[in-house]
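Researcher: Excuse me, tokens okay?
***
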Amino acid sequence: MPKVMIITGASRGIGAATARLAATAGYDIAINYVGNQQAAEGVAAEVRAAGRRAIVHQADVSDEAAVIGLFDATETELGPITALVNNAGILFTQGRFETFDADRLRRVVEVNVLGAMFCAREAVRRMSTTNGGPGGAIVNVSSAASYLGSPNEFVDYAATKGAMDSMTIGLAKELAQDGVRINAVRPGLIRTEIHASSGDPGRVDRLEENVPMGRGGEAEEVASVIMWLLSESASYVTGDFINVSGGR
């Protein structure tokens, strides 16, 4: 049976790096994006160049109908889904929590919590052997912010990643006998475009001296851990977390 993966937020950063590695591991991949189609098509081209199939599908993960459409299209075009990388997420400009308005708080929860839940639910509906699926694995891309809290920067984002961690634990236990493993990675200071969204594109350079390893990480370093968690080498690992944070 072909190995079929959905990666949300795959047009850049950790999602794009995971797609490249997944292609070399024999996965056909659905590249999800929300806004930058050109970047998503570029990632898909790299997957195809590695000899695998790829589709590009626009969907805002906070939209339940759009998520269902993403999963339906993937099954139709690539076949039964065996892996999900729940990567899509947003943050806003740095600040103190009392300054965050309702629109900001609502949006970060809609994307980072509801979006992750919608995607995980649709994956389980299709993968679970109890539901007649082939089994599979899910990796949730959380953040070191979930245990650091991100004070004076984005407590709201940190809180949503804490919710993702709780979902990881609960779902892993719920599905342990249904052929679906669920784990999470918690990246630390990683060199991706997301820092520009916080209004601080040089954030990694500014803070990396506080990392025990003395440097920021690369998206490929996170992607390699994601791929291990999805692999048979991690067949007895579920409900667990790997911090990819340089010791921070």
Summary: The radius of gyration is 17 Å. The chain has a mean pLDDT of 95. Residues 3-188+218-244 form a domain with the Rossmann fold fold (CATH 3.40.50.720). The longest strand covers residues 180-187.
